[in-house]
Write a structure and sequence with these properties.
Layout: H1 2-10, H2 16-23, E1 37-42, E2 48-50, E3 53-55, E4 69-76, E5 79-86, H3 93-112, H4 118-122, H5 126-134, H6 149-159, E6 164-168, E7 171-174, H7 175-191
Parallel strand pairs: 1-4
Antiparallel strand pairs: 2-3, 4-5, 6-7
């Protein structure tokens, strides 16, 4: 890498547009041609005085993003300050905040132990693990305790037989089709000698609903 950088400095007079033309890259005014993620570090700005006025540089957020994702870390008297700029058609605020929390966790782990392994740096924190595994899997819902699941499905099929009950990719099963398929399966199982409380396995093809 050092050699590439030195070589680039030796040809610094070469116009960037000529490099893109030589590489056969088509320029799009809406995108930077070589990268879409940028990281920058700014040292603590120095205040300057002139004509009795004091000028202090500061970060001014812009309503547009030059790249898809840009993280700038600046030195301040209180420590590091991070600013994340992102394209709103690709990311939303919760995702952006989650990325900033992940970056803060990474910095905290490096500060605690500069010799920490990379695998430990990227491992989720307790809060992240809980949010992904526990909170993200809380899909329970209230339903009548005095009725079985197949009875609830049959009741729904009676109300809205043509409503979609199951989706798998571009396939759709209505409640009518679901109940009819369940009835056919039940008749087949009874013909094979299956009775209530008889254990049975369910095999689903990898391609999902057929």
């Amino acid at each position: 890498m050092r050699g590439d950088i030195l070589d680039a400095h030796e040809h610094s007079e070469l116009a960037f547009e000529d490099v893109l033309d030589a590489l056969g890259m088509v320029r799009d005014p809406g995108y930077t041609p070589l990268y879409q993620v940028m990281f920058g570090h700014q040292t603590q700005p120095t205040a300057r005085e002139a004509a009795g006025l004091r000028f202090t540089p500061g970060f001014v957020p812009l309503p547009t993003a030059k790249t898809e994702l840009e993280l700038t870390v600046s030195d301040t008297p209180d420590g590091l300050e991070a600013a994340l700029v992102y394209r709103t058609d690709l990311f939303d605020e919760p995702i952006a905040l989650a990325m900033l929390r992940r970056y803060r966790t990474l910095l905290e782990r490096v500060a605690d132990d500069p010799r920490v392994h990379v695998s430990d740096l990227i491992a989720p924190s307790v809060e992240e693990w809980r949010a992904a595994v526990e909170d993200g899997n809380r899909t329970e819902a209230e339903f009548p305790r005095d009725r079985l699941i197949h009875e609830l499905v049959e009741a729904q099929a009676a109300r809205t037989p043509d409503a979609v009950a199951v989706r798998s990719g571009d396939r759709r099963w209505t409640y009518r089709r679901l109940v009819e398929a369940a009835d056919r399966t039940a008749r087949l199982l009874r013909a094979l000698g299956v009775r209530p409380e008889t254990p049975g396995g369910v095999f689903l093809p990898a391609r999902g609903v057929s």
